[in-house]
Amino acid sequence: MNHDEHIDHIKSCVSAEDEDQEKARDEFCRLCHYISIDKDGGDKSFEELRDLMESFTEEREAQNRLFYMALPPNVYVPVSEQLRRCCKSKKGVSRIIVEKPFGRDLKSSIELHRKLAPNWSENEIFRIDHYLGKEMVKNILVLRFGNPMFGAVWSCDCIDNIQVELFALLKHSTFTKISMTEAIGTEGRGGYFDDVGILRDVMQNRKIVSALK
């Protein structure tokens, strides 16, 4: 994929029903830039990324940068090293976002932290689970607390049991159930799940987040 194909893809996903919406979409697309990086190609690709970022921020006094690493866990460390070496801002702050899983267990999680530490300080690293953003996207908090009907029943007094099911929704049950279903398959993520494990990737965070609600 190149930059033009990326913009075409954005436009195909964001409909515009009138001229004003089309102008707003086009303005958004002008803020989007796409570059393909070869993580195994040394510093060259990352220097191209740096040059691209500097090309549209060179007139700004502060050049703050946020790098979201939605990548396989096995490349977190080498990519973070190259980002630090080639792309860290010299005129502002830089941060990296590391998406779960943070290792396979406590030992590997500590090891990942140890390897990230030489390149990024603790206050420059954000560790997130993208599923935690689901609540904001779907506006669940507003839906719940803005409607007394839902606020009254979505509580520990009315929910007896929480289950997270990955692939099938049971239709006969004697208890209240919150289910997470996915109709799609691994969609090219088989190698990732073979290494990380589907239960470790999906089950624990969905269940914990649902329980906290």
Please outline the helices and strands.
Layout: H1 3-13, H2 19-30, H3 44-55, E1 65-69, H4 76-87, E2 94-99, H5 106-116, E3 125-128, H6 134-138, H7 140-145, H8 148-153, H9 190-196, H10 198-212
Parallel strand pairs: 1-2, 2-3
Helix pairs in contact: 3-4
Description:
The chain is mainly α and 213 residues long. It has helices spanning 3-13, 19-30, 44-55, 76-87, 106-116, 134-138, 140-145, 148-153, 190-196, 198-212; strands at residues 65-69, 94-99, 125-128. Strands 1-2-3 form a three-stranded parallel β-sheet, with helices on one face. Helix 3 crosses helix 4.
Task: Give a nutshell description of this structure.
This protein has 213 residues and is mostly helical. 46% of the residues lie in helices and 7% in strands. The protein is built from ten helices and three strands.
Keywords:
3 strands; 10 helices
> Mean of the pLDDT scores?
78
- Are there runs of 5+ residues with pLDDT below 50, and where? 166-176
Molecular shape: globular
Please state roughly what percent of the residues sit in beta strands, choosing from under 5%, 5-15%, 15-25%, 25-35%, 35-45% or over 45%.
Answer: 5-15%
Query: Using DSSP, what is the number of strands?
Result: 3
H/I helix tally = 10
Order of helices and strands: HHHEHEHEHHHHH
Main sheet makeup = 3 strands, parallel
**Given the helix and strand composition, which structural class is it?**
mainly alpha
What does the radius of gyration come to?
21 Å
Distance between the termini: 40 Å
Helix content: 40-55%
Order of the strands making up the biggest sheet: 1-2-3
